[in-house]
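Re: folding output
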Amino acid sequence: MDRDLEHLNLLSIFYYIAAGLGLLATCFILLYFIVISGVLAFVPKGPHGPPTQILVPIMMVVGGFVFLLSLTMAFLTFLTGRFLKQRRHHLFCVIMAVIHCLSFPFGTILGVFTIVVLQRPRVQQMFNEMAPVA
């Protein structure tokens, strides 16, 4: 098997694993959000209690945003693995590799290796050969 093809297949597998871990993290974010909302629902209301009428909507907005962001990243990571396997959408894969570089330490390692592999001339040629003809 060609070395570049083998590297793309390995990267694809690692992106699938990263997507699964991202989905698992999304489940923990949802669980955390549910627990905190439940705790805030049972906090005594009154002049000496915390202002729950302000905290609950803020928690809903922030928790919902973080949940959707995490779910979106897991989905985009899965797509990156799929596109690497199919050798399509080179620019998308590079952009996702750069975004993964922000996730220290494992995302950084995955992102840097992906960028190194995707910048090889033979790999770029493989992506160009698989590109759909318009």
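--- second protein (sequence, then structure) ---
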Amino acid sequence: MRISTLLRSGPAAWAALVLVPVLVWFSAQNTESTIAYWPSISSQTTIVVGFISAACGAGAAWEAARLRQGGITVLAPARGSLSVAVLHLGPVAVLGLIAMIAPFAVIVTSVASTPGLPNPAILAVSYSVVLAHIALGWFVGARMPKLLGAATMLIFGYLWGFWPAALGGLPWLRHLNGQGVTECCGLDQDPSIRSLAATVTFSLAIVAAVVLSSALRHRLWRPLLSLTGFTVATTVALTLAVPLDFQGTQARDTALRTCTGQNPQICLWPEQNTRRADISHWAEETTAQLSAVGVTPARQVEFGDPQPDKTNVASNIATSPLPNEAPPCALRQGAAYPGDEAMIAIYAWLSLTGGVPKSDLAQRWPLEAISLAEQIRALPTQAQHAWYERNMRSVHDCAVLPDLDPASYTKAATS
């Protein structure tokens, strides 16, 4: 059959006229969380996989029902149902590929250029989800009326594409439907290999079951082998997915970082190397400002922004002495943690001291804390250091109440 005839009589071309523009528009509205790091860029394409797989599954069901109604397999028995399926589902598979490429291109143009290439594993796994829905649509459409089969796959594809992500009790389901790495990745993260493997294994389980069901002619072996293959592959997928819970990322290999300097040691990822000279200069300025009030940054500092600016560098280095997590005493059930109040004030004081502009800090931090930090900065250097040391004790020890009042340290400094 000619390609023009396939496109004119099938649903793929007509669906593309609606699907592709909608996906381009949707992707353009959802680029805020994307950073200039290829795994992050690539993972954003998984957001739209639910739409694509639903549309392609419905198109495959429509084609299967149409061919069954027309008796194609009876009219051309020598070709076999599998070869007929490959021919007629080809345009639907191409639709799925185009529908993935279009929003990916939108996302790529919305972020700054970055070295490297798109993550092929994420893109391939996402496309495997689309192929699984096409195979399932072919199976369902051949057993239902034309409109009912397409509607069933459209609803099922949409629900399966987005519903698991909302389930708190069964978080591992997202690693089967292709949404496991949607929230990937920070600059220090890679997509979870287990998550990707679980998705592709489950998708191949569906494809294999449908292929066996279409290729085998023996009435006993066909359902037995199809069900056995699907069960075994699904078991493997569950073994990979269940232990992950919500986690769809893994730590990036730290050997890729380049660390230079001391106190603090500045560690940069490959995406940040083009700004190494500027980052080192800004880091030295911030370190000197902290040293003037007796504060030592963390021994090693890295940055989450692929292209950090002066404010970002100052903020990261200045606040690096603060712990990333609350102390164990604060994690006990019913425990009170007065260090929260101190942490908020110290963060503001460290930021301003390290050179972060007040206008920038005010966009993401309480104004009361900024005002208190400014009062502390007006104190003599010795008093500022005493305020910092005293209140850092409450950050690390739940039994120590903070003393944030500047007056307490003014008296000490003048006595």
